[in-house]
Task: inverse folding
C-alpha cells in the first residue's frame, strides 16, 4: 500500500433532516490521516444517518449551508457520492446489497479504474489506470482477498448474492483495502460477526490505519474496539455528540450504560 500524505476530514456543524425530522443537530468532528475514531450510541441516535450524510446519500439532506465537509482544503460538501469517492472517501455499508450478475472481481476492477483514472488532454477520462495493468490488479486483488481469508473462487461470485453476514462484511473490507481511500467510514462493520471474522475485519482496519487512512468506526458495542484501539471515542445521543474521550470511555460505557454517560 502507498502511504497517504497527511490530511484531515473536517465535519463542521452537520445538521440533517430525514423526512422533515431533525436527526443530526450540529455534529462537528475532525479526523486526521492515520487516526481511528469511534462513534458509539444507542439505536436511533443518528449514527447511520451521520455515515450516509457524510457520503452524500440524497435522502439525507443538509439542513443549513453552515454544514461543511472538507478533505484537506477541498470542500466536498455538495459533491455527489461518486465524486466524494474520487476525492478519497469510502463508506462500508451496514447492510450491503446483493448485485446478481456482477462478480466481486469485475466490480472492484471497474471501481478501481473509475477512482484512479485520470483525464487526458481532451478532458475525457482515461479508460484504464496507467499505473496498474489488469494482470497486476488481479494479482493484488487475490493477495488482499487471501489476507481476509476469502478464497480466490469467491471473487468470481456475484456481489453479496447468497453471502453470509460475515462474508458481506469481509467483502466491504476487501473493497477498502483495494480502493485505498484517504478516509474510510465503517457503519456497524462488526454486526453479526463471529470472533474469527471480527479479528479479520479488525486486521483490515489496522492495515488501512498503518497506510495513513483516517478511519471512523460506527458501532453499538465495545467488541471490535478490543481488537482495534481507537484514538478517540465519541458518544452520539439524540443527534448530538455528548461526550468525547480516549479508549477508556468505551469501558466506562460498557459498565455504566448510555444513560449515565448522557447525564454527565
Result:
Amino acid at each position: 500500500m502507498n502511504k497517504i500524505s497527511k490530511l484531515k476530514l473536517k465535519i463542521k456543524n452537520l445538521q440533517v433532516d430525514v423526512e422533515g425530522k431533525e436527526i443530526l443537530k450540529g455534529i462537528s468532528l475532525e479526523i486526521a490521516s492515520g487516526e481511528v475514531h469511534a462513534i458509539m450510541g444507542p439505536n436511533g441516535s443518528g449514527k447511520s444517518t451521520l455515515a450516509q450524510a457524510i457520503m452524500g446519500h440524497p435522502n439525507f439532506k443538509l439542513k443549513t449551508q453552515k454544514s461543511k465537509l472538507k478533505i484537506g482544503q477541498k470542500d466536498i460538501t455538495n459533491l455527489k457520492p461518486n465524486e466524494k469517492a474520487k476525492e478519497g472517501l469510502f463508506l462500508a455499508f451496514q447492510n450491503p446489497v446483493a448485485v446478481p450478475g456482477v462478480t466481486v472481481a469485475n466490480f472492484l476492477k471497474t471501481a478501481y479504474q473509475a477512482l484512479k483514472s485520470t483525464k487526458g488532454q481532451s478532458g475525457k477520462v482515461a479508460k484504464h489506470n496507467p499505473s496498474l495493468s489488469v494482470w497486476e490488479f488481479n494479482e493484488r486483488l487475490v493477495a488482499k482477498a487471501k489476507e481476509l481469508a476469502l478464497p480466490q473462487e469467491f471473487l468470481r461470485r456475484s456481489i453479496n448474492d447468497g453471502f453470509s453476514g460475515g462474508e458481506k462484511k469481509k467483502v466491504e473490507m476487501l473493497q477498502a483495502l483495494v480502493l485505498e481511500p484517504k478516509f474510510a467510514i465503517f457503519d456497524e462493520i462488526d454486526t453479526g460477526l463471529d470472533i474469527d471474522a471480527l479479528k479479520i475485519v479488525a486486521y483490515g482496519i489496522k492495515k488501512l490505519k498503518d497506510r495513513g487512512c483516517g478511519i471512523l468506526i460506527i458501532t453499538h458495542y465495545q467488541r471490535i474496539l478490543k481488537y482495534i484501539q481507537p484514538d478517540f471515542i465519541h458518544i452520539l445521543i439524540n443527534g448530538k455528540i455528548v461526550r468525547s474521550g480516549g479508549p477508556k470511555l468505551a469501558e466506562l460505557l460498557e459498565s455504566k450504560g448510555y444513560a449515565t454517560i448522557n447525564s454527565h
